[in-house]
Amino acid sequence: AQKITQTQPGMFVQEKEAVTLDCTYDTSDQSYGLFWYKQPSSGEMIFLIYQGSYDEQNATEGRYSLNFQKARKSANLVISASQLGDSAMYFCAMRGTGNQFYFGTGTSLTVIP
Amino acid sequence: GAVVSQHPSWVICKSGTSVKIECRSLDFQATTMFWYRQFPKQSLMLMATSNEGSKATYEQGVEKDKFLINHASLTLSTLTVTSAHPEDSSFYICSARETRVQPQHFGDGTRLSIL
Lengths: 113, 115
Known about the structure:
The complex is a heterodimer of chains A (113) and B (115). Chain A is mostly beta strands.
């Protein structure tokens, strides 16, 4: 069975500081993809970053980077230079070899001015 | 970038009525669309997966006759909540992707309130 675990229900970070949101996954698939989405209070889901299981380099997208440790089955999201607009729910998700997407329970990030 | 439009964004209706929610991919062809339900402060719960031109695949525990999904074209999928009741009140959000290896792109969601 596929499973995504986000152990931090809530996180606080000072503006301009970096923050790491944890995500671990469990799968027996050899090929899979890992995703991070941001959900502001308005509700829409915003795609942030993607990491393929065979990608050797960690994915980066602007201030977002994914710390992919395959042996540990972790895919932590690092947000550098936090901004007030980063306050939101963040979901880690995994796509296996089937059609399914599996979402974690989310982490609520609050950026403190 | 990939844009998914979901309409309406907010619905309030009486118990017993049916509500249709539309999900459109505006600038790409969505071979697969997904419908999720989200309760307050909780994660997304996948309701069903639909591929264009074929019947939707429903997750366990989701009533097919209650939540009718149609994916008639590569850019449009609809979710109809039939004979809606207060317990159906929730945030419904759709997503679409062009190919299996690409990320899902989400609509803005629909807040459904049944009185």
